[in-house]
Amino acid sequence: MKRCFVLLILFFFTIISGLKAQNKTNSKPNIVIINMDDMGYGDTEPYGMTGVATPHFNQIAQEGMRFTNFNAGQAICTASRAALLTGCYPNRIGMSGVLLPGAKHALNPNEETIASLLKKAGYKTANYGKWHLGNVLPYWPTNYGFDEFFGIPYSHDVWPIDYDGYSKVTDAKDLRSSFPPLPLISNTTIIDTIENIKEASNLTTMFTEKAIGFIKKNKKAPFFLYLTHPLPHAPLAVSDKFKGKSDLGLFGDVIMELDWSIGEILKTLDNEGLTKNTVIIITSDNGPWLVFGDNAGSSGGFREGKSTSWEGGTRVPFLIRWPEKIKAGTVNSSLMTNMDLLPTIAAITGASLPKNQIDGLNFLPLLTGKTTTGPRDTFYYYFGVGSNNLEAIRYKHWKLVFPHKSTTYNQKLQGKDGLRGEGATMQVPLALYDLSHDPGEVRDVQLLYPEIVQQIQKIAETAREDLGDDLNNKTGKNLRKPATY
């Protein structure tokens, strides 16, 4: 009898110890990043949108922190996503510009990502949506720390379909005529192709449902969900449940559906009892592709948009909620970038930092109120498709723009009703802007503040030594190579 009693006590002790260990494991906060494609600074109500209600974007802003000076690592898809996942300037790791089907390089699997670091720390990891860091196997998400991937390898306009969403591009001079059908991938297998805009209209719902299933399946273990919506990148596509629902046409319908997607994620976290222990982040990979006119978003009054080093190209929305850790309803104007997410998430979760050099900085003390200002005061605006150009530097509230050739959306008519407008380029002169008084980058004040120009020029020399600059025929000393094939 006594022996049975002892065994019973040992049994209960084992159960309790197991529960304690489980609770200890489950105490790690879940991480959810929702990264939109080409969503401009001004495309939601927390950032000034008029004409489209965005109640769930609003909810995250009201229950968390809204940043007003958050920048993507570079103003184009591939480079920005590389910056977010690795914490590096994309040119440091050979991932500037954008990958198209003919590309022969990809993110090097030796680079550690948020996913790979969290996986080592015991997290379940998944990416649903657009990848755009490698077009072929083995350069898909499951080779970079993600347990699961379901999505498309690049933007949904990388297909041989014309702007009407259905007709094949037959003009051999049009690069799109050489593009393959848009594949839909599950982990490492192409399971389908997306043939037209009607089929693309299912993407937001499809990826949202996959994300919900992942949360429910992994609610007892810490998880990292990377939901990368392909929209509102053109061509716009919206499901029947939101078609014609907004007062702002198709673009407004798309924003409403993205807001719905956020709402479904929030509802799932609530229903599963995960809200308190989940950090949710909402941002965009770069500014709006303004050449599409009414089918593009708003840069919120900042100059230009995607593919430029003006504020409209890199400054994007950033909302973060972590109940009881981040004070609700706060607004912060500290300079932050998507490179800073990796070290900040590592600090939140206790994950290790990458062994190789990164450029991101830890913002956790700012988020939790231990400090009032962020650790970053400098940001390099590199850009170039096939080149490595240092086009501007921000230092505190100053921005020095170097002479370079830039895309501009202001010289010719933009598109309408899904048709692309006519692009243009301009030669940009040296100029200094005070973003505190001139966020639209209109008034050059270099003659008033020559000492600031000189100070930032010294910072530029440091950047060029480190990362290079094709505009000055400078090769950086600390660059790492992408994977090639």
TrEMBL record:
Family membership: Belongs to the sulfatase family.
GO terms for MF: arylsulfatase activity
Record keywords: Hydrolase, Signal
InterPro entries, alphabetized: Alkaline_phosphatase_core_sf (IPR017850), Sulfatase (IPR050738), Sulfatase_N (IPR000917)
Gene3D superfamilies found in the cross-reference section: 3.30.1120.10, Alkaline Phosphatase, subunit A
Protein name: Arylsulfatase
Ranges for domain Sulfatase N-terminal: 29-350
